Amino acid sequence: MDQIHIGLIGFGTVGTGLVKILQENAKLLEERLGLSIVLKRIADLDVTSDRGVKVNPAILTPKVAEVIEDPEIAIVVELIGGLEPARTYILQAIEKGKHIITANKALLAVHGAEIFQAAEEAGVDIGFEGSVGGGIPIIRSLKEGLVANKIRVIFGILNGTANYILSEMTQRGLKFPEVLKKAQELGYAEADPTLDIEGIDTAHKLSILLSLAYGVQVRLKDIYTEGISNISPMDIEYAKELGYHIKLLAIAKSDGGPIEARVHPTLLPAEHLLSTVSGPFNAIFVNGDAVGATLFYGAGAGMMPTGSAVVSDLVDLCRNLRLGVSRRVPLLSYQHKYLREAEIKDIQDITSTYYLRFTVVDRPGVLSRISGILGNLDISIASVIQKGRRAEKAVPIYMLTHEAREKNMQKALQEIDRLPITVDKTVLLRIEDPSDFGG
User: What positions carry a catalytic annotation?
Assistant: First the structure.
């Protein structure tokens, strides 16, 4: 065997990056692999637009079947995104005995159980390094580099759009709508940014990491998900005064019982490395029982970083084919028979420390009313600051709590928000400190 034929479905941004790398680094890849990778077919609805790379027009086709049905093509790369028709194409390719590479995190989060089951039955491999963290090799690290470890904690900044927005708000004091508009102009945010700013994209990626870290199949609806669209410059500024930065964080924790899995804006200590990750970059903190704290950082999206991840999967699969083996590493790190349905802890049952901002009328006794309600529900106050008095106007009070149960906190805030002294709904943000886990 001196070459392996592959087929590409989807010639968009990441598909173009894949082709560029295969062309520009062909000699390097051949020296590392021991054979050449031949891109035999590219299927896309648009076969005429200039992508900035030269390809033989004869390999372009609008018919996906010409990729899936070609007996010479051993690996099919799906880069069209979305749920359908990507799911159908991948299942058809698996049925034909093709190995699969995809960067489609939404598809794996929603239909992963079906796809991995089909691959298991067909005896084919699936590479999905590009689905989480762009060019950061977090998938392979969890499957291989950290295989000796029980994973205690994962904290992830997994969406570059949200991180860019929060970074700009933190550094420039800008409001959410104007930063979002700027992100769209720069191409960091889609015209419809819902998946990014409401935490859904981050939840997709967290579900994949959960499967790899804990050998579980996760239902997306079980991951508590909260976005950043309600974050205000006031809360960012107050957090900075208290020594924190706000990040949209994916959180996974396991102590042997139900797994914590949640996505929400989170206060992180300003001095921690995760807090310093700015702009459209990603970072993932992983703590294992043997290795301790590790941190992965890099470009979380884009043509070339994600293209790099896709090529890493290509080389891995081609090495297997060259040696006549497959399934050297289990698809989801665990042997298939040991995968189980995830037991996810309800958000009401977690314990956390909290940042709270109350907007109240400026009169004596307000703070004692609030602290009394908190105390009745076993919530103790770590620190409190009341901003300067302004006659006849509402004033903010913000505080940090000691560790408390989410269920008690929600009950307290419902009671506080019904008080006649409360002018607006209380803002709640959870606090995490990676240094508690060796970071």
Answer: 205
